[in-house]
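Work Package 3 (structural annotation) set out to generate three-dimensional models for the target panel prioritized at the project kickoff. During this period the team completed the workflow that converts sequence records into discrete structure tokens, so that structures can be stored uniformly alongside our sequence database. As a representative example, we reproduce one entry of 183 residues exactly as it appears in the project archive.
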Amino acid sequence: MRTFISLLRGINVGGKTIRMADLKSLYESLGFSDVTTYIQSGNVLFATAKRDPAALCASIAAAIKKKTGLDVTVIIRQPLEIAAIIKRNPFIGRRGVDETKLHVTFLKEQPAASLVKALQPLATKSKDEYAIIGKEIYLHCPTGYGKTLLNNAFFEKNLQTPATTRNWNTVNVLMELAANPEK
């Protein structure tokens, strides 16, 4: 059995409401075990013998659509990927960076290099900082994520892939939950 962490885009905001108990039951109905949800924003840890993240994303999204009628983007990472994401955050340890102002945007696919390059002049309108490494965007938003121009919609439009963002604390808690599933 492998552990996976699924991140659902836009759950419990803008009218896309799914109770976490219902989400847990839905995952269990798919044959997943050790299902754990974390906060109300669609973070679900689970174990399965299946190995293909793309197939898991598709089956979870289809089950949510069938059960709730909602179209939800599902992005999956494994614990080793989350550990690497935490380790390579370029803003950690930098002088003057408040960790409560850090976020990670998880991309469904790695963006084309040409799109990443084209993003640079567009992002200069923001005072916030970002770094794209693989399928993640590290954000430093000193005035808060709610005020940034560098949000999911901005990155999805310009990088042409679905995205969902979690604050730094949530990323670390998900890693802790994956490392200690009995919690």
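The longest helix spans residues 53-68.
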